[in-house]
């Protein structure tokens, strides 16, 4: 069964074509909106590069589909990662006009992501026709298990009746890493305490106790929690009142600065890409150093905050662009928890680990690097749903 998966991140648009049940990846593509580069990797290892140029988001996606799809009518099912599913969606769902309206309604809570997700749905509907079933997989679904004390903000009680609560994001990745951690450690998930750091352009942490997520750093929107590529993470809300009142900000200005002009990019003035921050820091750029120092400081603080709720820790897990690739970030974080008996094996850490335990044998806490596989998870669900539907 040929399954297409679309995954629009905040800085990238990934698409993958799978063949199931073999779990074979036939091609995948990534558009990096920051650099304007399109990369398509074929199953035989050939890599093709192009630039976005003057194409819009939808045009870029249509262009990728028309240049990679030799037989479009072979596609039996399409899965879309959708960032915000609100309180309504705790499970994957078949995409209908009503589901699309709900996703559009939730765009005000995830303005970078949900509109991009909807565009992806429109493009595939136009390209493959409406007969091909499409499913939505929500990043928020995994966090429906959050206990009230972690998900309800201590504002007036009426807020939570209006739906203002912590939803959490990156759920597909956190759920995958949770399961994969149990596999790698060869332990029963029901006896594990995990802290999972999803560090991409967007960043979030989840605390997992015995297979249930009990806390996470992203909140009502993907702005909360850790410092990110272009988002600040948690802020004193008094700053927003000050900017509105004293600096006459409009809500649009606030939204733009919080989503696109903050975080690593805002502080460094250089880039949202941590690689560029690290390299500028090495060359003595002081704002790059400050951006990196804040990033690490906030990461340490939030991991610390999760520890108490879990009552200890069995494994600290790193995933996504930064978590999988930056040995310096992993090392700085792990070294700050040495007092708990956590010992990183620095040789393993430097050796491009993938799905591997990189703690020393004597460490009291395991450290895992896991390649997140959001697209494969979505493809597998699509296969299961479609197979059930056909029987
Ligand atoms: P998205 O949130 O858009 O899905 P990814 O998970 O692909 O993003 O992560 C992208 C980020 O990963 C980039 O912005 C870059 O900062 C970071 N990254 C990738 N490789 C490295 C590396 N070797 N060192 C540091 N950061 C890296």
Question: What proportion strand?
Answer: 15-25%
Question: Radius of gyration, Cα only, in angstroms?
Answer: 21 Å
* Strands, total number: 14
H and E string: EEEEEHEEHHEHHHEEEHHHHHEHHHEEH
Architecture of the largest domain, CATH level 2?
2-Layer Sandwich
The major pleated sheet works out as: 8 strands, mixed
Supply the number of helical segments: 15
Instruction: Assign a percent range to the helix content.
Output: 40-55%
pLDDT averaged residue by residue: 94
What small molecules accompany the polymer chains? Answer: adenosine-5'-diphosphate
Poorly predicted sequence stretches spanning 5 or more consecutive residues: none
What would you call the structural class? alpha/beta
Within the largest sheet, what's the order of strands?
5-4-3-2-1-6-8-7
CATH class identity of the largest domain: Alpha Beta
Shape by Cα distribution: globular
The CATH topology of the largest domain is Nucleotidyltransferase, domain 5
Distance from N terminus to C terminus (CA atoms, Å) equals: 14 Å
CATH superfamily of the largest domain: ATPase, nucleotide binding domain
């Amino acid at each position: 069964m040929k399954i297409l998966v679309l995954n629009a991140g905040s800085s990238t648009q990934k698409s993958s074509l799978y063949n199931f049940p073999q779990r074979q990846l036939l091609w995948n593509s990534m558009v990096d909106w920051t650099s304007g580069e399109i990369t398509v990797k074929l199953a035989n290892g050939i890599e093709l590069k192009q630039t976005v140029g003057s194409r819009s988001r939808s045009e870029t996606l249509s262009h990728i589909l028309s240049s990679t799809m030799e037989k479009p009518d072979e596609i039996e099912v399409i899965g879309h990662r959708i960032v915000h599913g609100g309180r309504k969606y705790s499970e994957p769902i078949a995409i209908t006009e009503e589901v699309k309206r709900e996703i559009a309604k939730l765009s005000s809570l995830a303005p970078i992501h949900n509109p991009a997700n909807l565009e992806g749905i429109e493009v595939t509907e136009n390209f493959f026709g409406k007969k091909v079933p499409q499913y939505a997989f929500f990043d928020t679904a995994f966090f429906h298990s959050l206990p009230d004390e972690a998900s309800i903000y201590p504002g007036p009680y009426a807020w939570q009746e209006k739906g203002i609560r912590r939803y959490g994001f990156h759920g597909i990745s956190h759920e995958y890493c949770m399961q994969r951690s149990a596999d790698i450690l060869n332990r029963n998930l029901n006896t594990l305490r995990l802290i999972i750091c999803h560090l991409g352009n967007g960043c979030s942490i989840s605390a997992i106790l015995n297979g249930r997520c009990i806390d996470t750093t992203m909140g009502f929107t993907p702005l909360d929690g850790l410092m990110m590529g272009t988002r600040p993470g948690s802020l004193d809300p008094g700053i927003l009142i000050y900017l509105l009142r004293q600096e006459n900000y409009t809500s649009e200005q606030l939204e733009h600065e919080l989503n696109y002009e903050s975080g690593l990019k805002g502080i460094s003035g250089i880039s949202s890409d941590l690689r560029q921050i690290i390299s500028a820091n090495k060359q003595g750029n002081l704002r790059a150093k400050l951006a990196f120092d804040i990033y690490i400081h906030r990461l340490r603080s939030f991991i610390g905050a999760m520890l108490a709720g879990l009552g200890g820790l069995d494994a600290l897990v790193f995933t996504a662009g930064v978590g999988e690739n930056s040995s310096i970030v992993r090392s700085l974080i792990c070294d700050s928890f040495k007092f708990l008996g956590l010992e990183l094996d620095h040789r393993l850490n430097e050796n491009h680990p993938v799905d591997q335990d990189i703690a020393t044998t004597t460490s009291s806490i395991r450290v895992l690097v896991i390649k997140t596989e959001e697209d494969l998870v979505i493809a597998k669900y699509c296969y299961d749903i479609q197979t059930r539907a056909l029987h």
